[in-house]
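hey so i finally got around to running the thing on that chain from the lab meeting. sorry it took forever, my laptop kept dying and i had to restart like 3 times. anyway pasting the input first so we r on the same page abt which one it is
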Amino acid sequence: MLEKIDLNRKLPKSEYKSLIGELERRIGKLQRDARKLKIPVVVVFEGWDAAGKGTLINNLILALDPRGFKVYPTNAPTQEERLRPWLWRFWIRTPARGRLAIFDRSWYGKVLVERVDEIVPKEEWTQAYSDINSFERHLSDDQIVLVKFLLHIDKKEQKKRFEKLLANKSTAWKVTSDDKRHHRQYNLYYRAFEEMLERTGTEWAPWTVIEAHDKKFATIKMLTTLIDALERRIAGSNSQGKEGHHDAPVKESAGPLDLSTSILNSVDLSENLPRDRYSSASKKLGKRLLELEHEVFLKRVPVIIVYEGWDAAGKGGNIRRLVQGMDPRGYEVVPFAAPTQEEKDHHYMWRFWRVLPKAGHITVFDRSWYGRVLVERVEGFCSEEQWSRAYREINETEQQWCDFGAVVIKFWLQIDQAEQLRRFEARQRTPHKQWKITDEDWRNREKWEDYSAAVEEMLLKTSTTYAPWTIVEANDKPFARIKAMKTVVQALQRRL
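ok and heres what got predicted. didnt touch it at all, straight out
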């Protein structure tokens, strides 16, 4: 592709001056419109060393309200960033609705500098193409405007710019030993850029190659491309209305389930464990969990444990028994309720990426990203299109975590309606437990069949070889607690 780019394109100064003022006014207005319509924007600048990324970014932000954007320069990952999945540092920087994030270099470093300089093995940067396409599709599906620029110059022009910088004492520092090495590796980077364009130029996140020999031409093309993307998105938003809350439960994706053959109806809820056996098993497993927590830390294995289940299924008590003998410096329990306004202003997975455990640590999620296909689906807090695609998004995300080396353990705590009613009533009778029962719990109980259908589909579509679901028979709390502890012990032992 790059060999077909005409790098001789130039723009006369007079023509540049006649265009730039109007383009700056338009981009400023579009930023205000996007903020009003709560449209998030991500702009990526990639390209050769000395291609002018800094100049173009500066030309862009001078036309913008500084309160509405943030520029993220991307360097080699820090030690803290290396301890998490490689896309973590970019996920947590995705913009809130109505804001703009500008990346001076980005996640493409994995398939460019880390590839060419052999910082990572081939299988890792090859897998990164799939991770990138998945990441960008998640953003695009969430209505983020994603614009990607590749600034292209030839080897002769790059050398000329380096020599000009080196000739001036005040700018010579800008040309590093890495820059000089990359210049010698121009042909290797050329092939890396070509493959990047081929494998990540998608329908939802296409590339725009900017002929960057002439900075005036490059600036006009950059602004024009971004203006076009924003105008199309804003026009679509005005004509279709914003995605948002639905007052009524959305239409289900399938017909009524045959409950006689369902996954949940096949669970044997008569399972129980005598108290004396529970006590001895709990002590033994607790001791082993402490040992495994230490091994996990030494071998830098991140562990993600997810708890989902019916209201009053015993998630809190189960989690307490799981971690009670562990070193609190090595684990964290993170409870999730309805999202805050800040969380609503981001992709629904954003709040979970933020608290992922670093390598060697354990995070227990008391409710999780599965709320998208459970409560948000049943209560109509998202559209059918949104929760339907969430199965793919969740599977792809968990795959990335597992590829990083994480152990993902997922529990669904299953009780029957009679046991739930008994626990609800017991909570109402017990003063120090009354805070646990709310009007919302009773409303959710009335939608048992709707939630059952959602749980069935969730288990069917997101129980994978790398992150399988474990259904825990939870009518008997001691049995449920021991089963969860055993499952974690077995999963960690397999991984270690």
